[in-house]
Amino acid sequence: MQNELIIISEYCAKCNIDPLFIDLLHENDLIDIYVEGEERCLLYSQLPDIEQYSRLYYDLSINIEGIDVIRHLLMQMEDMRREINELRSRLDLFRDI
After folding, report:
1. With 0-12 CB in 10 A as exposed, 13-18 as middle and 19+ as buried, what is 33?
2. DSSP of the chain, one letter per residue?
3. Structural domain that includes position 48
4. Which of 48, 49, 70, 81 is 20 to 30 Å from the Cα of 12, by its Cα?
């Protein structure tokens, strides 16, 4: 299911999103667009990110550059969270000695 493609025009119509917004995300390397036949498509696995980006853009009026910065910061936070968990595991090993 992760490799399933969603047609952009259908997704935009269903979610009330301007297709130009999808193009902006793609132009700024926030998402990938695939062409299947004559249809432009998105990967199903990208939908949670697109939904988050659309909330930031439409609900909070954050521009595409701001969305990119937020995405980058969230990725850094997730990396740090993983590193902290790894360090805690190592520390627990030393405590057990």
Report:
1. middle
2. -TT-EEEHHHHHHHHT--HHHHHHHHHTTSS--EEETTEEEEEGGGHHHHHHHHIIIIIS---HHHHHHHHHHHHHHHHHHHHHHHHHHHHHHHHT-
3. 5-95
4. 70
Name the domain count of the chain.
Answer: 1
On the question of pLDDT at 2 being above 70, the answer is no
Q: State pLDDT tens for residues 22-67.
A: 999 999 999 999 999 999 999 999 999 999 999 999 999 999 999 9
Comparing C-alpha atoms, which of 32, 34, 8 is closest to residue 20?
A: 8
Instruction: Please state, in angstroms and rounded to a whole number, the distance separating the CA atoms of residues 45 and 4.
Output: 8
Where do we find the tokens 């299947």? 36
